Amino acid sequence: MSVRNSSPQSSVEAASGTDPAEPDVRTIPTPVGDARATLYPAPGTVRGWFVASHGAGGGIEARDLAALAAALPPLGVTVALVEQPWRVAGKKLAPAPKRLDEAWIPIVDALKADMAGARFAVAGRSAGARVACRTAAATGAAGVVALAFPLHPPGKPAASRADELLGAGVPTLVLQGDRDPFGGPDEFPALGATGTLTPVPHADHGFAVAKRAPVSQDETLKTITDAAGTWLVKLLG
């Protein structure tokens, strides 16, 4: 599938990182409608890519995704934040998981044209993390970063989605707030030799912390970006 540039910045400029203040916005056709990817290029040598999407209740402006888009490019990791077709179309409700997967695989395939063979990780927050896990093998990703993985619906721990997480088939990093009603870190199963679970203290499902918490919001986001950055540098080489 082709990728259409939606900004005046060229593909060459995006790849070289000559203007990091102007992210490159792409429109990506999929079988279920157009998606939109905002690229934050790594300056200089590119170590790899981080392709991430949002959850069912928000967009790429989520605090964790925005923090990662700022923190990862200086480490040599180009970031692509993807708005799913249902969000681009202005719909308020996400479609069924199968439809999300049908869009995600061609989105990643289209972005590979810009990667020049570089290794990449797929990622998402909440429902987007589920998509990344379910499709990791099909996209050829080197790893998955699961932000606020919704292990179960709130108050229903028996309705576990652990099989999606454990079935990713690639190294996986889970970043989970310890006040997350969709599953705190202590509820997760053992992730195996290639899985890493990093608790985010005092954070809820959106990685927000209360004003009375002993850590600030900025410190919480740094916990997330430091853990993801360290893990990705090791994964991508």
From TrEMBL:
Residues 1-32 are annotated as: Disordered. It comes from the Bacteria. Residues 1-13 have a biased composition (Polar residues). Gene3D superfamilies: alpha/beta hydrolase (3.40.50.1820). InterPro entries: AB_hydrolase_fold, KANL3/Tex30_Abhydrolase, NSL3/Tex30. Pfam families: Abhydrolase_11 (PF20408). Transmembrane segments: none annotated. Residues 50-231 form the KANL3/Tex30 alpha/beta hydrolase-like domain. PANTHER family: TESTIS DEVELOPMENT PROTEIN PRTD, TESTIS-EXPRESSED PROTEIN 30. This is KANL3/Tex30 alpha/beta hydrolase-like domain-containing protein.
